[in-house]
């Protein structure tokens, strides 16, 4: 008998029909003798509907109250899940993030988990009940206010609960079969990965793979929580994410997969005078934005900020106001750019990997704008329309396709 | 400067447009220098929509989880109200029932308030903020579970908060102008009452007047909380409900008004053997139902149970099973009966009131089935279709009409 945390995303609980199916799966797990904690996201579009109500009142809702509003979505799906489980004859109890002991920082809308004190969850389990915990939310350790954890918060709730309860496994149920070597919508012969280490998974997530939130992977790595990513709609065992010591040695090569991200925009300040304090002033202007900076020095310096597309227009406005003041010659804005990343262990210690990256993009007709490297990631920026070509070029060049599909691929002469 | 608790019902916050209007009214009150606590019900049909979701899963949802589900409705309207108030430049903070210190018994779906410890509400007021509190909900003192207060729970939340905060006034905003001498939909010349004492108001509420929940009136009487019932949609000062010592002496007569209730059914057990333990056995069978009992002795005894129509069918099934066993000769069921009540101080000490009640019903062609009396109430049962005639007959007989309208009425020869 083990303790399993199961997290179900919004698409898995989109309707009462789906909630029933998830409840049946939870009850089956419980009847196998496991202790089960279920973490549920809000139903399908609930969060967007709640945001629409707030926007109808004001474009600038108070962040604290927006958090209160949004947390009701998970409270609803949670109560419904507990009702569905109990209707199948298995005891269940739902808990808000606060009741489950999820304590956070005070930053409304993007709080971070500080600690988890799951006493009530533990005592529900001790009584034989399934504990159903609202994802994405907690309570501020300082103010006692309800907080939300930001994007991917429910994954982090599940992992943090698994860590605090010393669970044997954290299962993340989603609408795909697991982690693939590339997005199967772009690369039809992408391979389902059986095992991925924390570091590589974190890098994939940071580079645009949406299957797991980066923060939840980092939390899992820190607390050594094994994660299984799998589908709510199949029995495929999915992908195991764990420390490399707990995984079998890598199978084919050190390259794990190709991630891509088409949600970024770019602001380029061309001809920036070479004064060090200017960089910090630019960063200060866009302080609330998760921006990467790129420098190109040609006499005067070009600085590019690669940032989420939604943050682009306000950042641009802020920078434009200061531009003359900063002595910047030109300001360019790309509202969408393509970003492709090759992720795997020790990439730069394998001779030729970086060269192959550059060559294959050129051969595929992709205009390579910038390339950055770390020991486990090589990232290229390219025009947004060329991104699918770039993903497929790298996926083929590093032989990442599923073996059986690769054979078909070669034989069919496509 | 005083402290005012304002409660707004579901129709007052039915849409974001109405929430904005209420927020403007709250902010106007705050700017007059008053401390303001706002209690908000769920938006329009939210509660029914949530119940539909639960019913799609199972006809018998776990009561504890149903409470969690339903309390989200008030959390949503509450957060939206705080957002709307803050968008007008006045600080506001929303609180759940639990955060506002509303502690209850553990009975899911029909918890009662045990105590209110509004420390967080008080400190929000001390900081100059408007406190927005979710009605209809609390936290069980014993289990820490979220609870709901049952029908009219938001009125009770408002009154209980007003009592705990020693508020100067509790305003109940609704969709009518106040408490009338009869339902204006049945009696067009019904008079808006300026003042009503707690006892009479409680009796009116118990007899079917929907403007205030009986439990909230009882709570107000116990803690001497003055209530003003008024409309969200007009500036009419409405009706003051207070202790008789705090009100001017009654104006016209001791009869205050006529209440009616068309939501009741009746089960009649005809020919019950005269054994005392049978009554307690019958009551035991319908223990969860708020039933009034009527006895008619004619050789053998007829027992009638007058109960909420929704409780009729299950109670009937329970009684039918036991009927032969109980030695009951016949079982009758009226799925809807009419109930009309005359309410006022010292009714039976006024000679002729009871006689007038009986005579006017007969003259109006109403079949009087049962009549019961207390010192402040006379209640008659009649066939449901005759109920409007009964209400109008008593309202006219005791000259309860609004004076100006009564004149017009007489003059126009209608």
Summarize the structure.
The structure is a homodimer of 414-residue chains. By secondary structure, chain A is of the alpha/beta class.
Give me the secondary-structure topology.
The structure is a homodimer of 414-residue chains.
Chain A lengths: L2 E6 L7 H16 L3 E6 L5 H12 L5 H25 L4 E4 L6 E3 L8 E4 L2 H8 L3 E5 L2 E4 L5 E3 L4 H12 L4 E6 L20 E3 H9 L7 H10 L3 E5 L7 E4 L12 E18 L3 H10 L6 E7 L1 E9 L3 H15 L3 E15 L8 H11 L6 E5 L2 E7 L3 H11 L5 H10 L2
Parallel strand pairs in A: 1-2, 1-9, 2-6, 3-6, 4-7, 9-11, 10-12
Antiparallel strand pairs in A: 4-5, 7-8, 11-12, 13-15, 13-16, 14-15, 16-18, 17-18
Helix pairs in contact in A: 1-3, 2-3, 5-7, 6-7, 10-11
Description of the structure:
The structure is a homodimer of 414-residue chains. By secondary structure, chain A is of the alpha/beta class. Chain A folds into two domains: 3-251, Acetylglutamate kinase-like (Carbamate kinase, 3-Layer(aba) Sandwich), CATH 3.40.1160.10; 258-412, VC0802-like. In chain A, 36% of the residues lie in helices and 28% in strands. Chain A has helices at 16-31, 46-57, 63-87, 119-126, 153-164, 198-206, 214-223, 276-285, 312-326, 353-363, 387-397, 403-412, and strands at residues 3-8, 35-40, 92-95, 102-104, 113-116, 130-134, 137-140, 146-148, 169-174, 195-197, 227-231, 239-242, 255-272, 292-298, 300-308, 330-344, 370-374, 377-383. Chain A has an eight-stranded mixed sheet, with helices on both faces. In chain A, β7 (137-140) and β8 form a beta hairpin. The termini of chain A are far apart. Chain A binds chain B through residues 16, 19-20, 50, 53-54, 56-58, 60-62, 64-66, 68-69, 71-72, 75-76, 78-80, 82-84, 86-87, 92-94, 99, 120, 144, and chain B through 16, 19-20, 50, 53-54, 56-58, 60-62, 64-66, 68-69, 71-72, 75-76, 78-80, 82-84, 86-87, 92-94, 99, 120, 144.
């Amino acid at each position: 008998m083990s303790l399993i945390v199961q997290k179900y995303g919004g698409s898995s609980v989109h309707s009462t029909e789906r909630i029933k199916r998830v409840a049946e799966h939870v009850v089956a797990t419980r009847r196998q003798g496991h202790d089960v904690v279920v973490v549920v996201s809000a139903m399908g579009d609930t969060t967007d509907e709640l945001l629409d109500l707030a926007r109808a009142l004001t474009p600038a809702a108070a962040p604290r109250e927006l958090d209160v509003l949004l947390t009701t979505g998970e409270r609803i799906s949670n109560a419904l899940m507990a009702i569905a489980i109990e209707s199948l004859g298995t005891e269940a109890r739902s808990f808000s993030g606060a009741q489950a002991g999820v304590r956070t920082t005070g930053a409304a809308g993007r709080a971070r988990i500080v600690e988890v004190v799951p006493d009530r969850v533990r005592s529900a389990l001790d009584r034989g009940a399934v504990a159903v915990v609202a994802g994405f939310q907690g309570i501020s350790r300082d103010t006692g206010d309800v907080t939300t954890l930001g994007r991917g918060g429910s994954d982090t709730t599940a992992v943090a609960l698994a860590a605090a309860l010393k669970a044997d496994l954290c299962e993340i149920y989603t609408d795909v079969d697991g982690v693939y070597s590339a997005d199967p919508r772009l690369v039809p012969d992408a391979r389902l990965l059986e095992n991925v280490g924390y570091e590589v998974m974190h890098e994939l997530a940071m580079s645009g793979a949406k299957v797991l939130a980066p923060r939840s992977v980092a939390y899992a790595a820190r607390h050594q929580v094994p994660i299984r990513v799998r589908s709510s709609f199949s029995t495929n065992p999915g992908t195991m994410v764990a420390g490399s010591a707990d995984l079998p040695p890598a199978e084919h090569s050190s390259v794990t997969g190709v991630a891509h991200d088409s949600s970024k925009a770019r602001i380029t300040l061309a001809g920036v005078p070479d004064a060090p304090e200017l960089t910090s002033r630019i960063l200060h202007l866009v302080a609330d934005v998760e921006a990467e900076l790129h420098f190109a020095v040609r006499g005067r310096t070009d600085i590019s900020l690669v940032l989420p597309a939604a943050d682009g227009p306000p950042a641009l406005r802020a920078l434009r106001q200061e531009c003359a003041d900063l002595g910047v010659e030109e300001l360019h804005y790309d509202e969408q750019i393509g970003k492709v990343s090759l992720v795997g262990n020790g990439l730069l210690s394998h001779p030729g990997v970086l060269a192959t990256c550059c060559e294959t993009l050129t051969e595929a007709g992709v205009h390579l704008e910038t390339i950055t490297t770390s020991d486990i990631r090589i990232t290229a920026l390219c025009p947004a329309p060329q991104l699918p070509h770039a993903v497929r070029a790298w996926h083929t060049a590093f032989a990442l396709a599923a073996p059986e599909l690769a054979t078909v691929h070669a034989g069919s002469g496509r």
